[in-house]
Amino acid sequence: MKFVKSGVKPQPTKWSAFADELHRTCKFDERSKPSAKADHFVGCGFTPLKALAVLLVVSTPIWAQGEPEKTSETAPENMVLVPAGEFSMGTDNRDGSDFNQRDNVPLVSNDARPRHTAKTGAFWIDKTEVSNAQYQKFVAATGIAPPPHWIGGQIPKNQENFPVTHVNWFEASAYAKWAGKRLPTEIEWEKAARGTDGRNFPWGNNYEGGRLNGNSDGPREVGKFAAGASPYGALDMAGNVFEWTASWFDGYPGAPTKQPDFGRTLKVVRGGGWMSGNTLSQTWYRSVNRPSSRIMWVGFRCVKD
Ligand SMILES: [Ca+2]
After folding, report:
1. Ligand 1: distance of its center to the CA of 268 in Å?
2. Centroid of ligand 1 to alpha carbon of 64 (angstroms)
3. pTM for the full model?
4. Spatial separation of the C-alpha atoms in residues 241 and 229, rounded to whole Å
5. Domains of the chain, CATH where assigned
6. Is the dihedral of CA 63, 82, 118, 260 positive or negative?
7. Are strands 100-102 and 105-107 parallel, antiparallel or unpaired?
8. Cβ-contact 202, 233 below 8 angstroms
């Protein structure tokens, strides 16, 4: 493992331990009942006390190295503000949405129903997906394993600004924590993508192929499609790569269907990927993957309170 900061002894095992602890304490029991908590999509058994205990162990050496930079309370770099308030979440439209993904296996259901009112506080969200170059800093600073497709631990040639992929939910969560951020809940992600008027795409109600990287042969540089910006200025909320959220896959309030995988089994990924077309790229569309999966079209972005 190569460390870029001279004179600083790396602490490779401690952030790896963080990711391992997160994995170990995250009970994704397929037989467990869906949570009845108000925040019905979040939680992994990683209680605040456990998180604090692990952070106390792992944080000091990293912070002592001066990484990551502390973001200010206003306008963190490369983040956009999503104001507090209600918005229209989900859909009542079944057209084109009669399948979903369960680890890429089609399901017969529309799990984004019904349209309902949801609410968030104010938060910052990354303007773009996390890039390979950004993730490389995390790898270099912590010693966590690089994505498996980085041959020799190096970013593929000329893909520094491509979205990082092949990182599982635990690694994405660890990156977010290291960066002083967190993964967005599904509710936050959808609001950041569609604003308050219930639109189907970040830019409006109709699919426009020139506004996103979809139906293509691979990822593109993050933030390349400025015309695809969401109402708050977030880019690539449709297309390029799907994005991990903090949320478990569960039914919305009043959901007309009940999936066997509802509960603490699968994490929701959002936004469609470079291979996706109209349907999966919609702001309300829910796809899912097992949290341990590393997938070539799944990346992530972070939020900050
Ligand atoms: Ca995306």
Report:
1. 13
2. 33
3. 0.79
4. 15
5. 14-64 (no CATH), 67-305 (3.90.1580.10)
6. negative
7. antiparallel
8. no
